[in-house]
Amino acid sequence: MLSKRMQELEEVSKELLKVLLSDWADNLLRRSLDKRTRMDNKLLLSQATATQLVKELSTAEETVAQNLLERESQLQRSLRRLRDLEEELELEELREESRRLEEDTEREDDAVPSAAYVTQLYYKISRIDWDYEAEPAQIKGIHYGPDIAQPIDIDSSRHSRCFVSDYLWSLVPTAW
């Protein structure tokens, strides 16, 4: 069996040798080499094209990145300008409000007597010197009546407002 296989292998080898030595094999080999050369050329061309496309893509990415940075910078400047305008507008509104308040205060100053004047007027009428450091529920002071000074000490939480008012008015002299 081994010899039969050896014999078959020998025959195949002879046939291959004949083919290799013939012109047909030479033509086949040339065509294969030409085909390989064309494929190599196409591969090199494809690689060159791919390299060019990568360069162009890189350039386009850089351009887009630069444009994006410029747009971001413009956006930041616009946002700063918007904040500045909002602050200016708010400041202008505050100035206008302040001006209105000053005008109102001037009008009120003209129409309403000062607190010092009112306090002096109340003292001249009532002759009561108030203790402003007393507790909030305590009404304290000294009434300087026509004959004698009289202390005032009323717990407003124990008496009605009406009682407190009537009592204080009773201290004011009615004879002018």
Uncertain parts: none
- Reading the helices and strands in chain order gives HHHEEEH
Shape type = rod-shaped
| Widest sheet, order of strands | 1-2-3
The largest β sheet comes out as: 3 strands, antiparallel
Q: Structural class of the secondary structure composition? A: mainly alpha
Percent in strands: 5-15%
Q: Helicity level, as a percent range?
A: over 70%
Task: Give the overall average pLDDT.
Answer: 84
Distance between the termini: 159 Å
List the helices and strands and how they pair.
Layout: H1 2-21, H2 23-111, H3 115-126, E1 128-130, E2 138-144, E3 149-155, H4 161-171
Antiparallel strand pairs: 1-2, 2-3
Can you characterise this structure?
It is found in: Nucleus; Chromosome, Centromere, Kinetochore. By secondary structure, the chain is mostly helical. It has four helices and three strands; from the N terminus they run H-H-H-E-E-E-H. The chain has helices at 2-21, 23-111, 115-126, 161-171, and strands at 128-130, 138-144, 149-155. It has a three-stranded antiparallel sheet with strand order 1-2-3. The N and C termini lie far apart (159 Å). The mean pLDDT is 84.
Please sum up the structure shown.
The chain has 176 residues and is mainly alpha-helical. The protein is built from four helices and three strands.
